[in-house]
Amino acid sequence: MSSNLINEIDIVKANTSKISSVDFENLTFGNIFTDHMLICDFKEGAWQKPIIKPYEPFMIDPSAKVFHYGQAIFEGMKAYKDESDDVWLFRPDENFKRFNHSAKRLAMPKVTEDIFIGGLKAILDLEREWVKKGKGNTLYIRPFMIAIGSGVIAQPSTQYRFMIILSPARSYYSGEVKVIIAEHYSRAANGGIGAAKAAGNYSAQFYPTKLANERGFQQIIWTDDATHTKLEEAGTMNVFFRINDTLYTAPTGERILDGVTRKSLIDIARRDGIDVEVRSLLVAELIEAAKDGSLKEIFGAGTAAVVNPIVGFSYQDNYYELPKMDNSYASQLKEKLTNIQYKLAEDTFGWTVKV
Ligand SMILES: *Cc1c(COP(=O)(O)O)cnc(C)c1O
Which residue stretches, if any, does this entry annotate as coiled coil (predicted)? Predict the structure, then answer.
C-alpha cells in the first residue's frame, strides 16, 4: 500500500452521544445511526484525507451526477461483539473487493484498502459502545460512494464521496415470506450491472416488488431475463433450494451478485457433509420437486437477515406451499454461521477480523 491516508485521519468527536436515547430492544432496521460518520472525497484524480465527524446532513450541488445518472454504489456488512467485549468484522476483505468491482463497473474510482478497511476499523473503534453484546445484536455497516461532481452532462463525474455510516440492528424475523417467481420483470441482464452493488439495481426492483406485495407476496424470485426459466436470486438475496438432501444455488456471474453469505454457507454446508450443487435450478425442476414432495426448503441468504426461509411460492397463478421442516438446513446453517460471527464457535475458515 503506497498511501497511508488513514494514519492521518482527522477525527472530530461529537460533543454528546445520542446512545442513551436509543431503545436497543426495539430497533427497526436501518433508521438510527451512530454519533459519527466517515467521509473521504476524491478530487483532482486522488483520494483526499479522510475525516470522521459527527453524523449530520451535508450539502451537494443539485446538478451532482448521483442525482441524474445514478452513479452510486454501496456495501452491507455487520460488526459483532463477543463475550469479552471485542468487536469483530466478518470477511471485510470480500466487501472491499466487491466494492471496487462495483466501482469499476460504474466508472468510479477504486478506493484504497487503507481508506476502506482502515476507515472501517477507525470508525468502529470510535463507536464500540454501539455494538451490543448478545446474539442477534449487530451494528450494520453501510459503506457507500456517490458522484458529487456537478454538471448535467452525461459522463462520469470527476468528484466522488466515499462514506461509512453505521446503524444498530437486531437480527430480524421478517415474518412468513411468500414469493412470486418472476415471469416478466428482471433484476439483471447479461452485460448489465447486476453483479455490482449499484443503487440502481434496487430502485429497479421496487416496482415489481410492489406489485407482488399487492398480491400478498413479500418478495420475488428473479429468473434469467432472456428465458425466465432459471432461478437466480430472491429479492435482494442469493437463494438456495433444497431438493431431497441436496442444496442448489445458482453460480454467480453477470446477473447474480457474489454474496458473502452465500459463499460462506456453501463452505459450511460442504464442511459438514451437506451436498451442495452450484448450478442454475430450472423453474420446471422446482415445480416438479414441489409436486412430487422432494422440495424441502427454499431460503434467501444475505448479510441483513442472514438466512430467510420461504414458506411458499407462486408460479403462473398456482401456489405451492413448502413443508414445515424440523431441524431445517436453513436453521442449521444460520446457527453455524452466526456462531462463527459472534465467536461462539471456532472460526476454522479464518473469516473473522478483530477491530
Ligand atoms: C447484497 C446482495 C446480496 C447478498 O450479499 P451478502 O454479501 O451476502 O450480503 C445478494 N444479492 C443481491 C442482489 C445483493 O445486492
Answer: none
Question: Can you give the pTM of this predicted structure?
Answer: 0.96
Is residue 3's pLDDT more than 60? no
CB distance 232 to ligand 1 below 6 Å: no
Query: For residue range 128-179, what is the model confidence (pLDDT) as tens digits?
Result: 999 999 999 999 999 999 999 999 999 999 999 999 999 999 876 677 899 9
Beta carbon of 169 within 6 Å of any ligand 1 atom: no
The best mutation among 238, 264, 333, 337 to test binding of ligand 1, ranked by most ligand atoms within 8 Å of the C-beta, falls on 238
In sequence order, the β-bridge partners of residue 240 are: 299
Give me ligand 1 centre to Cα 302, in Å: 5
| Residue 354 falls inside a structural domain | no
| 194 touches ligand 1 (CB under 6 Å) | no
Domain that holds residue 232: 178-341
Residues 153 and 222 in one domain: no
Domain contains 184 = yes
- Whether residue 149 sits in one domain with residue 109: yes
Which residue has cell 439483471? 188
- Evaluate: CB of 92 within 6 angstroms of ligand 1: no
Q: Is the pLDDT of residue 232 over 80?
A: yes
Last residue of some domain: 129, 153, 170?
Answer: 170
